[in-house]
Amino acid sequence: MTDASANTPATPRPGKHAGSLLEQNARTLRRNAAERRFRAYGLSAIVIGVTALVVLLASILSQGLPAFQQTFITLEVHLDEAKLDKNGNRDIEEIKKVSTFGYAPLIKTALSTRAGELGISSEDLGVSDKEIAAMISKEAAAELRRFVIANPDRIGETVEFEFLATGRIDGYYKGRVTMESAEKDSNISPGQLQFADALKEGGALSTHFNWGFFTMADGSENRPEAAGIGVAMLGSLYMMIIVLVLALPIGVAASIYLEEFAPKNWFTDLIEVNISNLAAVPSIVFGILGLAIFINYAGLPQSAPIVGGLVLTLMTLPTIIIATRASLKSVPPSIRDAALGVGASRMQSVFHHVLPLAMPGILTGTIIGLAQALGETAPLMLIGMVAFVREFPAAPPEGFFDPASALPVQVYNWTTRADPAFVERASGAIIVLLAFLLCMNFLAIILRRRFERRW
Amino acid sequence: MNDMRPLERIVDTDTVKISARNVQVHYGETHAIKDVDVDLEANTVTAFIGPSGCGKSSFLRCLNRMNDTIDICRVQGDILLDGEDIYDKRVDPVQLRAKVGMVFQKPNPFPKSIYDNIAYGPRIHGLARNKSELDEIVEKSLRRGAIWDEVKDRLDAPGTGLSGGQQQRLCIARAVATEPEVLLMDEPCSALDPIATAQVEELIDELRQNFSVVIVTHSMQQAARVSQKTAFFHLGHLVEHGETGEIFTNPRDPRTESYITGRIG
Ligand SMILES: Nc1ncnc2c1ncn2[C@@H]1O[C@H](COP(=O)(O)OP(=O)(O)OP(=O)(O)O)[C@@H](O)[C@H]1O
Ligand SMILES: [Mg+2]
């Protein structure tokens, strides 16, 4: 090439790729158009997904957040000795003989006194004494009785209590109940609502954060204000403990054996197919199995976390096994060769080299399995966990055999009840459930990062 | 093949370390090694040469039973180490592999620190009684692997963070650390620069004092430089085996001649 020719632009050479680079040819244009179309599809798919998620979360949050708030009425109750301990000898057995019916008048009196102090006249509002008493949850009398039995020495004193208002009054301050709806409602009258407003003005009624939602057991049909997820959370926790303790070691041991030690023959192939099938079995089938084997055959108690935990273990095992095997498979075989090459046994090569590398995958799989189990409803209903449980289960291990509920079952349970206050509770429980799931996924991410960052 | 320098070869001893008779290797339907008979002497470096895919690695892996880990692989025939059949039912391959070490074709350091890479073998075989002995073994092995100067300041760094050639030398050091009697090296210098190659070759020559070394190589020059015996494989057959000088200057088989003069391969 001479200097002169180097400066003149080269004439397009004839060939397969003739033409200027500054101009896209037809094939390139088509390719780019296809790529743009694909990106648009992808983007719209994500937009649809995110929108669905936002709508879902927004509806759950708007419905469920009020469940964490509750309306309370603060009263000073005189613990009348004449009514609670007639003989005055503070004998706990005698005090226990007084039922909640004996306590209700005390609360009624306290409320009338308080209203009197605040200058609220029931005649002006057109509410009867009975209606006024009905503004306080029926749970209040039980609460008072529990207090007195726990502190018999305080009989005769005047003690300040914060009682739950009924679900309707509570709903009034959350926008669920209005003056108009109260006219048609047999459980509440506009007068009661006005009375409540007056109490609020006087500072005797307030709406604030409700710890009881987390600590109380389920409430009966007509006491939504007293219903909490305490027993359900405890039951779910117990089951998760059982699942973790059983499914993780069994699952990991089975996967290591199948992946690293088992000879490849028709029998292990059969096992492999069956594990995959097991993962696809509808969860209700596991419930039936649990009912037949653990309750009817093995004689374990109904509604107990032990049975729920065992059933969920069976369900979680395939998930854990599949995840563990996948992560064992993804460890490059050259690492095994390296370990065997320096004279390590198969077990040493697995436990010293392969397993640590597979750990992030195993943990992620386990936590995803646990999260699935936490949200599982159908099999638990079959083994009786849908029962109405007021008593808290004892501490483990005995507690594993006590009746308990579970979070998702509690949600289902509440959505079937008539009082709209339970819908709010159900959404609140869903929020708690989602929060737990988020925490678990977050934990999975943290663990994965920590194990991966090492190398 | 101009700089080939067939040196005066002195084979110190005729003691047979490994003796293979009638060895066949099948991978499923593939017949990878056919009827191989060979004696590998103690205190000798034997080079395996041959075109790609001819079965050098396959045969090498028979010698420490690494083929056991491949499900579809079947090995037939007799391989004796010091007169004992290594495929005998009573032989534990783990014990065998401590005696017959291996450097793999692809560098495969453990995803652990450089120190732990070397220390792993001595640890599981109980070669060191305490930490300072282990430190000593690690340093000695890394020096023998010609990598000590490069890594002595970062023994805690991950072995996988080294360059390809450094990883290969790390693997050589790791294999040496367990003090095997036979060292099988599958193309140990394929990723190394000439300086490191020279160092590894020096190491191989040094190892010969105590061990038998088998080295697979694609470099005729290397085979000529380091080995006393050479075996030429072709399509699964052991075509020729003998003194390195003989093979390179005066091959008996026309296939050997074509290969070393660059006509097949
Ligand atoms: N794991 C395996 N599974 C199936 N076939 C294999 C396997 N390993 C090797 N083979 C086959 O055995 C034959 C010999 O392979 P081998 O790796 O021993 O060749 P090689 O001489 O080491 O080649 P190179 O010089 O390229 O490393 C090849 O045909 C190969 O396809
Ligand atoms: Mg090879």
Automatic annotation (TrEMBL), chain A:
The keyword Transport applies. Coiled coil: none annotated. Pfam families: BPD_transp_1 (PF00528), DUF3333 (PF11812). It is a multi-pass membrane protein. One of its GO terms (molecular function) is phosphate transmembrane transporter activity. CDD domains: TM_PBP2. One of its GO terms (biological process) is phosphate ion transmembrane transport. Keywords: Cell membrane, Membrane, Transmembrane, Transmembrane helix, Transport. Residues 1-10 have a biased composition (Polar residues). Residues 1-21 are annotated as: Disordered. Residues 233-444 form the ABC transmembrane type-1 domain. Gene3D superfamilies: MetI-like (1.10.3720.10). It is found in: Cell inner membrane; Cell membrane. The chain crosses the membrane at residues 40-61, 237-258, 278-300, 306-328, 354-375, 426-447. One of its GO terms (cellular component) is plasma membrane. Belongs to the binding-protein-dependent transport system permease family. CysTW subfamily. This is Phosphate transport system permease protein PstA. The lineage of its organism: Bacteria, Pseudomonadati, Pseudomonadota, Alphaproteobacteria, Rhodobacterales.
From TrEMBL, chain B:
This is Phosphate ABC transporter ATP-binding protein (PhoT family). GO terms for cellular component: membrane. The keyword Glycoprotein does not apply. GO terms for biological process: phosphate ion transmembrane transport. The lineage of its organism: Bacteria, Pseudomonadati, Pseudomonadota, Alphaproteobacteria, Rhodobacterales. NCBIfam families: 3a0107s01c2. It holds the Pfam family ABC_tran. GO terms for molecular function: ATP binding; ATP hydrolysis activity; phosphate transmembrane transporter activity. Residues 18-260 form the ABC transporter domain. Keywords: ATP-binding, Nucleotide-binding, Phosphate transport, Transport. It comes from the Bacteria. InterPro entries: AAA+_ATPase (IPR003593), ABC_transporter-like_ATP-bd (IPR003439), ABC_transporter-like_CS (IPR017871), P-loop_NTPase (IPR027417), PstB-like (IPR005670).
